[in-house]
Amino acid sequence: KEMENWRKNQDVRIPPDMVYSAETLPSMSSEELEKLNAAKPATFHEASQISGLTPHSLVYLYHLVTRKQRRELGAAAAAQRARDKAAAEAAASSARVAGENLDKEGTLHFQ
After folding, report:
1. Would you write out the chain's pLDDT as a tens digit for each of its 111 residues?
2. Cα Rg of the chain (Å, integer)
3. Residues 6+ apart with CB under 8 A from 8
4. Tally of CB atoms within 10 A around 13
5. What are the contacts of 46-51 at 24+ separation with CB within 8 A?
6. Residues in contact with 69: Cβ distance below 8 Å, sequence separation at least 6, in sequence order
7. What is the pTM of this model?
8. Contact of 64 with 58, CB cutoff 8 Å
9. Residue in 41, 65, 44 with CA at minimum distance from that of residue 55
10. Is residue 65 a contact partner of residue 12, using CB atoms and an 8 Å limit?
11. What string of DSSP letters covers 34-60?
């Protein structure tokens, strides 16, 4: 099932700054890491064309990259929510201050 899912997503991009090392990819052999470093594949389709990479290694790399992308998207969404909340609070604060300077007719007076 994982291999089928991976095949459907072969156009998923691999980050160009991906580090192919034993520290980041401990389940890959040194030969596989050397080949990935030499080829620097841009997509999983390109990675699948490298001879000597096992299906297990390709699925492992796929999961690593997609997990990282989901985390980054989640962090970006959280940052956007925080910016939206801060903007809403600033707008509400401005409205409260403006409301304090309104006369009975609703005219804004500046001090």
Report:
1. 666 776 677 888 999 999 999 999 999 999 999 999 999 999 999 999 999 999 899 889 988 998 877 777 666 666 677 677 777 666 666 655 555 555 566 565 655
2. 25
3. none
4. 13
5. 46/14, 47/14, 48/10
6. none
7. 0.61
8. no
9. 44
10. yes
11. HHHHHH--SBHHHHHTSTT--HHHHHH
| Number of residues in the chain | 111
For residue 43, what are the β-bridge partners?
A: 13
Residue type, 66: T
Which residues lie closer than 8 Å to 92 by C-beta, 6 or more apart? none
Give the pair of three-digit tokens for residue 20: 């192919």
The Cα 67–Cα 54 span in angstroms is 20
Amino acid in the structure at residue 68 = K
